[in-house]
Design goal:
Radius of gyration: 22 Å
CATH superfamily of the largest domain: Copper amine oxidase-like, N-terminal domain
Largest sheet: 8 strands, antiparallel, barrel
Number of strands: 20
CATH architecture of the largest domain: 2-Layer Sandwich
Helix content: 10-25%
Shape: globular
Strand order of the largest sheet: 13-14-15-16-17-18-19-20
Structural class: mainly beta
Number of domains: 2
Distance between the termini: 47 Å
Length: about 270
């Protein structure tokens, strides 16, 4: 009886541990970050929550807020500057400086999948921005001084292609940045692969992602035109969809799904 009880406790411990690991992993997804600095806006989907602190991608957020960013690979330090502030941080350390004055951050900066992530609220407020959090949509909004009344661009966000997305494949489109004259888009293509040559199956396989980032010129509020290296098409905004229309030439290198009929459709992904 004691042995049975012992094995029961061990089994329950494993189940609880697995559940906690799954819960902690889920905390790393679904955080959308929108940044506004006047008429320049950006979107970032790789923010995470760690130990209750939101960490955001360093370069994209800083640069939209008008700061220049430098990275010292040797000592893993980050320096961000705008017209009035100089912020210094070190990966793996809670020590920080603003204009040379030492202080501590709530969570140390980290590097995840090649992206440097830094504490959202500290960095944003250190650069004079304001931060708001929407619990329902898991959205973070960051506003540079004087930008809080700017209406969020209807382009920004993450869109999936339902016709070319399955259990082992992801074909998606991310609108990263919008200015009065252009949008910056990233084609994201992912697929599962088996690095063990046959011992893994289905959800056991890790993901590989390919990213291609380009600019398209805005020719109207809802149409952006792309043309480069013999490839041309229009990105057309319809409510929460983006259609790839009028595609000509060799565009396979962009990974925008397979072009069929009048357009290829991408639907906005909501958490």
């Amino acid at each position: 009886m004691n042995k049975i009880f012992k094995y029961f406790i061990i089994a329950m411990t494993c189940i609880v541990t697995f559940s906690l690991q799954a819960h902690n992993a889920s905390a790393y997804f679904g955080i959308n970050v929108y940044v506004a600095n006047g008429q320049t806006q950006s979107y970032h989907s790789d923010a995470i929550i760690q130990n209750g602190v939101t960490l955001v991608p360093l370069r994209g957020v800083f640069e939209t807020l008008g700061a220049t960013v430098s990275w010292n690979a040797k000592d893993k330090t980050i320096t961000a500057k705008n017209s009035t502030k100089t912020v210094w941080l070190m990966v793996g350390s809670k020590k920080a400086k603003i204009n040379g004055n030492a202080l501590a951050v709530s969570e140390a900066p980290i590097i995840k999948s090649g992206t440097t992530l830094v504490p959202l609220r500290f960095i944003s407020e250190a650069l004079g921005a304001t931060v708001s959090w929407n619990q329902d949509s898991h959205d973070v909004s960051i506003y540079a001084k004087g930008s809080s009344q700017v209406e969020r661009s209807h382009w920004l966000g993450y869109y999936t292609n339902p016709g070319y997305t399955g259990t082992g494949v992801i074909t998606s489109l991310r609108i990263d940045k919008v200015t009065p004259t252009k949008i910056t888009f990233t084609s994201v293509n992912g697929y599962r692969y088996d690095p063990t040559n046959g011992t893994l199956a289905g959800g056991q396989m890790p993901w590989h992602h390919d990213y291609t980032t380009r600019d398209a010129q805005l020719i109207s509020e809802d149409v952006a035109s792309y043309e480069l290296n013999g490839c041309s098409f229009d990105l057309v905004k319809y409510y929460d969809e983006i259609h790839v229309e009028n595609m000509y030439g060799s565009c396979g290198h962009l990974g925008l799904g397979e072009y069929e009929g009048e357009y290829t459709e991408y639907r906005k992904f909501e958490n």
